[in-house]
Amino acid sequence: MIDKTDPSQRDRQRDPAFAKFMAIQLIRVSGVALFIFGVLAASGKAPWPDGLPAEWAWALALIGAGDAFFMPTFLARMWSTNNK
Length: 84
Fold this sequence. Notes:
This protein is mainly α. Helix content is about 70%, strand content about 0%. It has a domain at about 30-80. The chain has four helices and no strands.
């Protein structure tokens, strides 16, 4: 429950930087999860989907790695307030 009298919680609700930070972290975590799932699927140990070709599974792993490593940097640059 949010205490409306606490200014730190009230400011965090409206802070766009905190929302962007959380979005970047969620993308990073989902990329790692996709990478792990792709590696598990390529090794045949993933519970779903059965019969997924190994090439597709490795493609999922590469997409997950790209999401984990490159998307946070891309979004941080896109959302940066510095004019470079």
